[in-house]
Amino acid sequence: MTPDKVAQLFGRPIARVDGIAKVTGAARFASDEPVAHPVYAYLVTSSIARGRISRFQLEDAKSVKGVIEIFTHENIGTAAKSDTGPDGHPSTTTLESNQVWYDGQIVASRPERQQIRSRSSMNPRRRARHSIPRA
């Protein structure tokens, strides 16, 4: 979408056919529907604002009952496809590389068959080395 087309989206009234249902609480959302045998995703986020992930220690997390897999850049990598950003240049996407671009960035996802209560012993530990270019 070109910047001109994006600019045309702002400041124009739009009829919200679902507005009344949402503000009165009558609207139904996907999360309101029951699902048999759901899988929950536990997201691991970065604790630094910029750097690179040097390695993961996943053995303890993988051994927990109910954990299906642990996804990181090591097993997703190039399968993650980047979209084009609003400026027309490539954008970043989750789990595409070991690069940390911002604090709170998703660096791993752990699908599990049940919501596991205690996470301290199962959190995939990661070490990130700061890699900030010098000016």
Question: TL;DR?
Answer:
This protein is of the alpha+beta class and 135 residues long. Helices cover 12% and strands 20% of the residues. It has helices at residues 3-8, 19-24, 59-62, and strands at residues 40-45, 51-57, 99-100, 106-112, 125-129.
> What top-tier CATH class of the domain at 36-129 fits best?
Alpha Beta
CATH homologous superfamily (4th level) name of the domain at 36-129? Aldehyde oxidase/xanthine dehydrogenase, a/b hammerhead
DSSP summary: helix tally: 3
Q: In percent, how helical is the residue content? A: 10-25%
Average pLDDT rating: 80
Beta-strand share of residues: 15-25%
Helix-strand topology string: HHEEHEEE
Low-pLDDT segments: 124-135
How many DSSP-defined strands? Answer: 5
> Main sheet?
3 strands, antiparallel
Mass-distribution shape: flat
Structural class: alpha+beta
Do you know the CATH architecture of the domain at 36-129? Answer: Alpha-Beta Complex
Write down the Rg.
20 Å
* Strand neighbour order, sheet with most strands: 3-2-5
Taking the alpha carbons of the first and last residues, their distance comes to: 34 Å
Q: What is the CATH topology assignment of the domain at 36-129?
A: Aldehyde Oxidoreductase, domain 3
